[in-house]
Amino acid sequence: MQLRGSAIVCATRPHGETAAIARLLTEEGGLVGAYVAGGRGRQLRPVLIPGNLVEADLRSKSEGQLPFARIELVESRGPWLSEPLHSAGIAWVTALAAAALPERQPFPALYQALAAVLDAICAAPSARGWVMPLLSFEVLLLRELGYGVPVGRPADDDWGAILATFDRLGPELARYPLAERRGDVMGARVLLRERLARIHG
Fold first, then answer.
1. Are 65 and 85 part of one and the same domain?
2. Across the strands, what pairs with 36?
3. Is residue 1 within 8 Å of residue 57, measured between CB atoms?
4. Of 76, 104, 122, the domain-final residue
5. 69 within 8 A of 24, measured Cβ to Cβ
6. Are residues 63 and 7 in the same domain?
7. Nearest to 194 by CA among 154, 167, 165
8. Lowest mean pLDDT among 78-92, 108-122, 146-160
9. Is pLDDT at 29 greater than 60 in this prediction?
10. N or C: at which end does the chain have fewer Cβ atoms within 10 angstroms?
11. The model's pTM
12. Where are any strands of DSSP class E within 109-150?
């Protein structure tokens, strides 16, 4: 495997004393797990934050081998992680992608949609500007994975209907793409819902 291009960091976990395993969503190669030497060190730890956009050079000698990754930061989401609502939104969409998508199966539309949601979370003045793109990403993910869910699009200015749609999609995500992992992953969505509820219609 040899792949170089933009990637979105979706999840990381420690590996050994200093390395990390990163799950990266790429447009061409889909979701790829990769070994990052020094991933827990001072230089790379802030680069491997879920939501960050990176330039990744992925290489492995065989298809079954975990690729090695060289990572360079392109855009950081770190400044928004101190904001509870922004942080919850970023945590949820990246956790969903990391848990639901199969390894090394390209979903270019989902890559583009996730990048757009993350941009919206960081650019919009309030959650009202990015909750609809987030819901659209969830619906697209369900459809791309073969779970067509008939969900109507609420009006952009109807906060009650938007939250109702949010609640309607939750069980579908738990039942289908997250059926085996819903406990730990859906917790991020529950936290996001609690914070969205504090916004008055």
1. no
2. 20
3. no
4. 76
5. yes
6. yes
7. 167
8. 146-160
9. yes
10. C
11. 0.95
12. none
